Amino acid sequence: MHNFTRDRRKQKQKQFEIQKQAEAKKAQAEADRFAKEQEAEAVKAQGIAEAESIKAKGLADAESIKARGLAEAEAMEKKAEAMAKYGKAMTEMIIKVLPQMAEAIAKAS
């Protein structure tokens, strides 16, 4: 009976060790899973931050292009106005000078 008790004790000790090892493996697996989830979240957050940065740069570039286009259009409009005024002034000058030119031509003939 003494051997039976000793064997039984050894068997229980072995079962206890196996259970502790299983629990340790389970805890390690849980810790690994948690670490991988945290790493995935960090990668996701970094990706989102990079995407937001690219989006912000794109929007800033678009605004810059738009502002440049508007400035160029405004400059072209001012040139057109100036040319129209110049053309009108030339026409008025010719109309004013034409009678004088006709008179000078008539006198010279």
Descriptive labels:
1 helix, 0% strand, 109 residues, rod-shaped, mainly alpha
Residue share in helices?
over 70%
- Low-pLDDT regions: none
Main sheet characteristics: none
Secondary-structure content class:
mainly alpha
Global geometry: rod-shaped
Compute the average pLDDT.
91
Give the N-terminus to C-terminus distance in angstroms. Answer: 157 Å
**How many strands?**
0
Radius of gyration: 47 Å
Order of helices and strands: H
Task: Classify the beta-strand content into a percent band.
Answer: under 5%
How many helices?
A: 1
Question: What's the arrangement of secondary structure elements?
Answer:
Elements: H1 2-108
Summarize the structure in words.
It is a single chain. The model has no long low-confidence stretch (mean pLDDT 91). The protein has 109 residues and is mainly alpha-helical. 98% of the residues lie in helices and 0% in strands. The protein has one helix at residues 2-108.
Gist?
Helices cover 98% and strands 0% of the residues.
